[in-house]
Write a structure and sequence with these properties.
Chain lengths: 204, 204
Amino acid sequence: MYLRTVNDSKMAGRPKIFDEKEVVEKAVNVFWTKGYETASADELLEAMGIGKGSFYLAFKGGKKELYEKSLRQYANRFDKQLLHDLSVSEDPIQLIRDFFMALADDPKSKQMKGCYIGNALVQLSDGDADTKLIAAGLLASVEGIFTDVIRKAQAEKRLKNKAKPEVLGKYLINLWNGVNVTRRSNPGYEHLREVLEMSLQVLS
Amino acid sequence: MYLRTVNDSKMAGRPKIFDEKEVVEKAVNVFWTKGYETASADELLEAMGIGKGSFYLAFKGGKKELYEKSLRQYANRFDKQLLHDLSVSEDPIQLIRDFFMALADDPKSKQMKGCYIGNALVQLSDGDADTKLIAAGLLASVEGIFTDVIRKAQAEKRLKNKAKPEVLGKYLINLWNGVNVTRRSNPGYEHLREVLEMSLQVLS
DNA sequence: TCCTTTTTGTACTAATTGGTACATAATAAT
DNA sequence: ATTATTATGTACCAATTAGTACAAAAAGGA
């Protein structure tokens, strides 16, 4: 026995007018710009293009379930993209350097929004400890990817720095978190690039 | 002509039963643990120990004015303390190092709360752009203190690193922002100390 | 066609939100 | 004592919140 989550053509009953992944993606946009608490259910439904009936049938957990699914969906897409880029890269360490340096080139609108997952950590109150834990796990996943790249590069002597890969991985996630807060206060600040270059000295 | 904001003994009328700075300080605690949106007016008044009548008379701008005042009051106290500690220190650079390393020793409860000012940057939605700007300014003030210390230490040859003081100042604020997010996801993580040591290598 | 199943849209609700109105209390000045 | 002034506590309110109830719609299968 398994749960049918989508409306395949052989299923009886009125057909769904929306694709779950697609509407979750639209919810990401609302949550990202407005924050979890500030994004109202009406606003989300409006953006998702569905009514309350459909929504509360598909997302029994309401707003919270939608948010958690949006976190996971966003992070999974992010991880997959990063892993793919790394897999086809000649120089994974350089790719990570470029990845961070690109933060300085983002448009102001993106600079103001921060990291979708990191925002959850800071915006959720103690009452949503479980959701916070999910976000923490998703960030840890990215950290793990960094750590693996570093461990491999050290083994291949492509990275001089001999610090523990776990520490370097956490250092990078910490840098990520920092930049995504710092950018908000002064988007496009000219010194950001130099700060990033200084911070990435450890990757050599 | 000037505005009288406090109830000095020569003023007519019923005397205030509270001190504004004190109740703002209590509001800081609520905002810090619950976040701006999630902290309800009732909850704040309860913690402040005053009724609605008194509150909306003293804080005409309501919850928002209270929050902005709490940000400024917190930051001013922080700045004063830091400047004082620096003024009596034999080795200001070492003081900054200790300041950051102390982040790893905070109790779990404090680790989870983040930076009071940084939280504002991440928690406020676009509708509160003005308040966000205030928070950005307060962080910039701390950054300025760091920058001055670094500039002076370089001039006195007590700091080998010859990078621009402005860049190092922003580097440190960025480190601060990062740690205050990272800690939330894994308070007391054993690698945090090593990450801090790695990050503070630039201060030598 | 008629029954079953699933989705949809709308009307509704109970609770909470930040904020206001206003009568009363407590003080200083006259 | 009376008046002017300021602060307080309480009752109230309009708007918004997330969420529910339910009848109608749209499909497949018999």
